[in-house]
Amino acid sequence: MKTEIAEILKRNQLSVTDSRTSILELFRSSKSALAHADIEKKTSEQFDRVTIYRTLQTFVEKGIVHTIPTADNSVLYALCKDNCSQGHHHDNHVHFICDDCGVTYCLEHISIPNVQVPEGFITKQTDLVMSGQCDKCNA
Amino acid sequence: MKTEIAEILKRNQLSVTDSRTSILELFRSSKSALAHADIEKKTSEQFDRVTIYRTLQTFVEKGIVHTIPTADNSVLYALCKDNCSQGHHHDNHVHFICDDCGVTYCLEHISIPNVQVPEGFITKQTDLVMSGQCDKCNA
DNA sequence: AACACTTTGCAACTTTGTTGCAAAATAAAC
DNA sequence: GTTTATTTTGCAACAAAGTTGCAAAGTGTT
Ligand SMILES: [Mn+2]
Ligand SMILES: [Mn+2]
Ligand SMILES: [Zn+2]
Ligand SMILES: [Zn+2]
């Protein structure tokens, strides 16, 4: 729904533009996390690289998407499904990257367990990323 | 000890060279994880960028150092203290990155808890990275 | 429709990482 | 210790990834 996407943008005090609409639409229709390069390809090179960088940055700031750290050091982005807001993410779920098909899953219903840290340490964020084989590739 | 470092290299079937010796020495004398750029600076630009890339890659392959994924997408490297071997890492510990001083700690004695994955998924690796304030910065 | 404000695309640039190859260094053989 | 075979290094050239300034285009408001 086009209007629904515009709603999300407006709710976050963002003006409704082609690039933002298309990229947000892409995220919503995609089952897995996306890398910058994926977005570039899947929008059929419709937007400038710089615009995509800036759009993703804005979305992360607004709490519309969150980033996923990976072992091979590529940045991945996925929709926030929890109620994240401006500068305040709380996507406390586990991520799984399939080594075979490369798909990254947000395991929304699996939350990151509490981890005890040494005296004096204060934890602000915890990322838990697993990798291996997904159910589709594990034939 | 110079000889000790040479020993480690030989044990891993690596020829003893200046760059490998210096970089390994640097890791052993450093309490925190190092980024490529750190190594470049701390060896006072003694070695070519390419050599550092190749040395790190070799060390990771041999199980001498392991990588740490980070939220801001920079690769960090730290000494393996467990008995990792050629192509078989088992550094099952938590990492902590201080947002204030930037230091990354290997919390060797805190192991990553088991996490249940959905039916059909097979986990091969789990990374758990926390960030916040370390004991030194939490005055 | 006119205006103020925001976003975009382009160009130019920096930073990061990769590859091929000849010269230098290391390890093994003599 | 010298010669030889093998590995490693540095350089150059390149590719990919990310950043910045700025004019032109687009958006939202009156
Ligand atoms: Mn997620
Ligand atoms: Mn570690
Ligand atoms: Zn898969
Ligand atoms: Zn600190």
TrEMBL record, chains A, B:
Q: Which residues are Fe cation-binding?
A: 89, 91
**Cofactor binding, per record:** Binds 1 zinc ion per subunit. Binds 1 Mn(2+) or Fe(2+) ion per subunit.
GO BP terms: namely:
negative regulation of DNA-templated transcription; regulation of secondary metabolite biosynthetic process
Record flagged with keyword Zinc: yes
Required co-factor(s) are: Zn(2+); Mn(2+); Fe(2+)
Q: Does the keyword Zinc apply?
A: yes
What's the protein name?
A: Transcriptional repressor
To which species is this protein native? Limnovirga soli
